[in-house]
Amino acid sequence: MLPLAFVLFAAAETGSNTTAGIMVAAFTIASALAPLRGRVVDRHGGRALALFACACSLGVVLLVVAAVADAPRMVLVVLSALAGLVVPPLGPFTRAAWGRSLRDEPLQRVFALDSAGEEAALIVAPLFVSLVVAVASPRAALVIAAAGMLAGTVVASRSAFGARVAGLPGSPARGVQRLPPAVWFVILALCGTGLALGALDVAVPAAAREAGHVPVAGVLLAVMALGTAAGSLATGGRAWRWAPARRVIVLQALMGAGLAVVALTADRLEWMGLALLIPGATLGVLFTTVYLLIDSLSPEGTGTQTFAWLVTANNGGIGVGAGVAGALSEASGAAAGLWFAAVCALAGAIPAMVAAAMSARGPKPPQTGESPGVSSDKQRINLPQGNGTSGEGS
User: Fold this and answer.
1) Which end of the chain is less enclosed by CB atoms within 10 A, N or C?
2) Which helix (H) or strand (E) element contains residue 310?
3) Domain boundaries, the chain
4) pLDDT (tens digit, 9 = 90+) per residue, 220-233?
5) Which CATH superfamily is domain 181-359 in?
6) Where would I find the H helices in the chain?
């Protein structure tokens, strides 16, 4: 809810698209520092996450109060940046918590549900924001979004799984633990996915405008989102023969091919809707697989930070991809923006290949404080047991 509510609030309060854009940019750029907040949460656990949520909610409330008091626009911009600076890394935290607690099939099922749930939220949340704005105001929508974020984050931070994210005795709390090169190549691969998604956000509505059916754009994007949720759920209980690193390569290539089909159907919206199911379903499987791969490659005690880098890469790619696709669609038509999306998704397979080669060289670094010969997987539990046992026989 928060991004859309913020945009509508900024536009309504300033009456200027330029100022609203600056406020949104200040919030978004500041929130992109999620890896730094993730590092803090990795060291201090759920309490740090809850404090970030409290600070962000307070910043949103102060922003609304400043708007009510008719504060200068520069004050609104500064408060927007401060609120974005302390957005809690909730998604990365929960994935790090599950990665420390679960293993094998239960972990895959949870990551699949996470991906499907997030996609469902992206469908439902904008509708709820629109309802609140229609019934009340953008201010109310922004406050409700902040309250929901605070409540959900505090509950997650106090969960039994969340307690496992806190820094371990002997963990590298005083220094910066470097991430393996393979992790960075996986993150780079996801940049290609983000570029493709940003291009789709612009090119699909452009295709709908060219066809003279602007409202259909929302339906087309919703179809893809449903495909993503379905793909996530379908992969949750599947037993894969290929390792996650190899699957990411194939999935990036498949997504690129699916987007090429979408580009070929740019002048036929009904066929485009069907074609969007291919990259949509592939995306759901890809996200689940990337989560598993990142969990296996990340050193212990860096889970929140590493998953936060995924968020930054994806969101940064979306922003750049939208800008490039907008220029291409304006100059050469919507199909050009769609072809750009296909090329970006396909290009993501290249760093994925490098990551696969690197990950094949050695196992995940052992948990700090363990002897090198003891696998950190022995610390994880099996989902049906949930009792802290090793679950090694599963």
Assistant:
1) C
2) helix 303-332
3) 2-111+132-165, 181-359
4) 888 898 899 898 88
5) MFS general substrate transporter like domains (1.20.1250.20)
6) 2-14, 17-31, 34-44, 46-68, 73-85, 90-101, 104-135, 138-157, 181-210, 216-236, 244-264, 269-275, 277-297, 303-332, 334-347, 349-359
